[in-house]
Write a structure and sequence with these properties.
With 166 residues, the chain is an alpha+beta fold. The protein has 6 helices and 3 strands; from the N terminus they run H-E-H-H-H-E-E-H-H. The mean pLDDT is 86.
Length: 166
Amino acid sequence: MRHRKKFNHLGRKSSHRKAMLSNMAASLILHKRIKTTVAKAKALRMYVEPLITKSKDDSTQQRRIVFGYLNNKFAVSELFREVAGKVGERPGGYTRILKLGNRLGDNAEMCYIELVDYNENMLSASKPQADKKSRRTRRKKATATTESAAADVESTENSTESESKE
């Protein structure tokens, strides 16, 4: 029975699961985005977000703790140098899961898991909306066309009256 066991075991023994999550977390930190199944992405999010929170405090002890989880010195240095600088003010929610659909072979749900502050497409899409101007009303355009139409009618009336007088 699995009473009070909250995390997903992913069909693996604990040593295999820890090694897999460690490798996936290092790949996520180094590449900023990886493609995986939704179940693994949710397990990875629970694994990597506390490590990113630890990286905000750049001390030797925090680096040792994070290295104990990642076992990759390049990923640890990237995490403490680059990633921690970008997420310094963010209170949490460092990763985003984007669902892609189902895999052809076994119909598993696939997704991208990415670091939030590194997706340039979504960052650039959010900035123009903030600078968006207010909408123009149609009344101004309609009154301008009405006035020009009225002026055209008057000019045609004047021209017909002058032709009739002659």
